[in-house]
Design brief:
single chain; alpha/beta; 17-stranded parallel sheet; 8-stranded parallel sheet; 23% strand
């Protein structure tokens, strides 16, 4: 008898057809990653009552979920994700599949409340309903699922407060509910979730302050961005030694970045942009040897940029550390798999905000300190961070020259130094940055010739350099129009002079001054020396008499 049937990724098309009573003993059926369309057969539960594993994901199925699935009392794994299913979750399914531990209905068009009060899925361990149109509040019926360790309700229309009873579900490891309409504070009961690894409540209306008890957990990824959180960044996070991702961006947080941040030895992604954080960038960040992405943009930070920053990439770091990550003894390959399906990190590069996750995230590295009040020179040491792809220091008060060490940023793709007070020349060595696709030094005090328009620099237009009146060269004005002309030797064979470059105003002023000086000099000599004065008057008298007789002799009539 046939117990297992796997037809994954075989380009199957058309509707699903079941023969009555032909596969009563089938336990595992996987027909995912095909082109099956139409509806799921209404009688699927009666035709396949012994199924333990059913995967029909990544097809083009439409219609509603058949209630007959509730007849599969031995079903443990059900995946109908990435189809076009509509309607709600049948009550018969939630009452009949008593053995169901894995339920994934992601990326469909399902709607309505998630579960009704009639609910018997008490063996659930993984529940993934993301990417639908579910509404209402988080169902209280889940409070009896004591084995539940992963919830993903992201990208729905859920509303109401986050229920406090979730803090009593000690087995929870992942709470993923971004992009909903949840409101209210983060329940203090969450402090009891000692096994929680991922908490993502971003893109909601969460208010209040950050729970001070987070320091007692072993959270790896904490995403609370794009909410209405207030209060200061206190030391509560400094004791979460397992923290890899901390994203608190787009809130109303204030205060300084705590000096104890160096205690987050595993931190790789620090995203605090668009808050009201003030003070200086703490030099303790330099002790974070595993930092890959840091975004402190759109705050009120002041002071100098630490010269000791050291950024790497997640992938490079753990390849160097012999494929072992010292977070509760987790093997790095297992953790990379977690990243591949885990929560994305949002980071602005190439003037747009992108979402990075999985393997791509492990290769990302960058710095964004833009839109602050940073002063001083750009540290030369920044140029030694050869792995970063993004560097944005725009909209600050930085001075000095662009470090020539930036030519060592061989992986850089986006470099923005605009809206500062930088001076000097643009280092010509930057043309060696072969991956550079976004470059801006606009609105500074730069001067001299723009680097040669070769390689990547041939793609940068005038907007990349505007606001620097002393810059010249393509694509700006020609350097010949702004520099003194070369000296031109007069050709003795040509009886002409080139006075096209004489400033006539200066010429006339110098001529008058010289004439006056000659008159003053003559008057002074005649006043001091009587002999010269007598001779001058005698010479003048003789000239006048001679001129008189000359006129009389030549102009008199015959």
């Amino acid at each position: 008898m046939l117990n297992t049937l796997s037809l994954v990724n075989n380009s199957l098309s058309g509707p699903i057809e079941l023969l009555a009573h032909s596969h009563m003993s089938l336990e595992d059926l996987d027909i995912s990653k095909n082109f099956l369309d139409s509806h799921i057969p209404v009688e699927i539960g009666a035709s396949l009552p012994s199924l333990r594993y059913l995967n029909i994901s990544r097809n083009s199925l439409s219609g509603s979920i058949p209630p007959s699935i509730g007849d599969m009392k031995w079903l443990q794994y059900l995946d109908l994700s990435q189809n076009y299913l509509s309607g709600g979750i049948p009550e018969k399914l939630t009452m009949g599949c008593l053995s169901l531990s894995f339920l994934t209905l992601s990326d469909n068009n399902l709607q309505g409340e998630i579960f009704s009060e009639k609910f018997s899925l008490f063996q659930l361990e993984d529940l993934n309903l993301d990417g639908n149109y579910f509404s209402g509040s988080v169902p209280k019926s889940l409070s009896n699922c004591f084995n539940l360790h992963s919830i993903d309700f992201s990208n729905n229309n859920l509303s109401g407060r986050i229920p406090s009873w979730m803090g009593n579900m000690s087995s929870l490891q992942e709470i993923i509910m971004p992009n909903n309409g949840l409101e209210g504070p983060i329940p203090i009961n969450f402090c009891q979730l000692r096994n929680l690894l991922i908490l993502d409540l971003s893109k909601n209306n969460i208010s209040g302050s950050l729970p001070s008890c987070f320091s007692t957990g072993q959270i790896i990824n904490l995403h609370l961005s794009k909410n209405k959180l207030k209060g200061s960044l206190t030391t509560q996070f400094c004791h979460i030694s397992s923290l890899v991702t901390l994203d608190l961006s787009d809130n109303q947080l204030s205060g300084n970045i705590p000096d104890c941040i160096n205690m987050l030895g595993e931190l790789s992604y620090l995203i605090l942009k668009n808050n009201n954080i003030k003070g200086e960038i703490p030099s303790q960040l330099c002790k974070l040897q595993k930092l890959s992405l840091i975004d402190l943009s759109q705050n009120h930070l002041s002071g100098h940029i630490p010269s000791c920053l050291n950024l790497t990439t997640f992938d490079e770091l753990y390849d160097r550390d012999y494929n072992f990550m010292p977070i509760s003894g987790i093997h790095v390959e297992s953790f990379k798999n977690t990243l591949s399906i885990g929560e994305p990190v949002h980071f602005t590069t190439k003037n747009m905000e992108y979402s990075y996750k999985g393997k791509i995230l492990s290769y990302m590295s960058g710095i964004d300190f833009s839109c602050n009040k940073l002063i001083g020179k750009i540290p030369l040491e920044i140029g030694h961070l050869s792995k970063i792809q993004v560097l944005n220091l725009s909209h600050n008060i930085l001075v000095g020259q662009i470090p020539s060490t930036f030519s060592n940023l061989v992986q850089i793709e986006s470099l923005d130094l605009s809206y500062n007070n930088l001076s000097g020349k643009i280092p010509p060595q930057l043309v060696e940055l072969y991956f550079l696709s976004i470059f801006s030094v606009a609105y500074n005090n730069l001067s001299g010739e723009i680097p040669a328009r070769i390689r990547q620099f041939a793609t940068f237009d005038e907007s990349c350099y505007q606001g620097n009146p002393l810059l010249c060269g393509k694509p700006m004005k020609s350097c010949l129009a702004t520099s003194p002309p070369p000296m031109i030797q007069e050709d003795p064979t040509q009886g002409r002079e080139d006075d096209g470059f004489i400033d006539m105003g200066v010429f006339y002023v110098s001529l008058i001054v010289s004439y006056i000086m000659v008159l003053i000099t003559i008057a002074t000599v005649l006043y001091i020396n009587p002999y010269w004065r007598q001779a001058w008057f005698y010479y003048t008298e003789m000239c006048c008499i001679s001129s008189y007789y000359f006129v009389v002799d030549h102009l008199s009539k015959p």
